[in-house]
User: What shape does this take?
Amino acid sequence: MLTIPPPPGPVNPAELPVADAVLDAACIEVHDPARYDQLYQVLAPRHPNLAEELHFRMRTGPLAGAATIMAIAS
Assistant: This one.
């Protein structure tokens, strides 16, 4: 579960698909939710323009990683 406070600034709905792609590439759904804070601390500096959207998606879900899970499982 993500416990880091959200970054200042609004969530841009137009950037949510990009945040979904970043989280999908990070295989977010195969990570232990207890480590979401650590994962966010890695991803947010790499994608500073998506910090709000990444936080929003990691906090609220549903996440876009179903295709990733299927690829890893197969």
Notes: The helical segments are 16-25, 36-46, 51-60, 66-73. The radius of gyration is 12 Å. Residues 65-74 have pLDDT under 50 and may be disordered. The chain has one domain: 14-70.
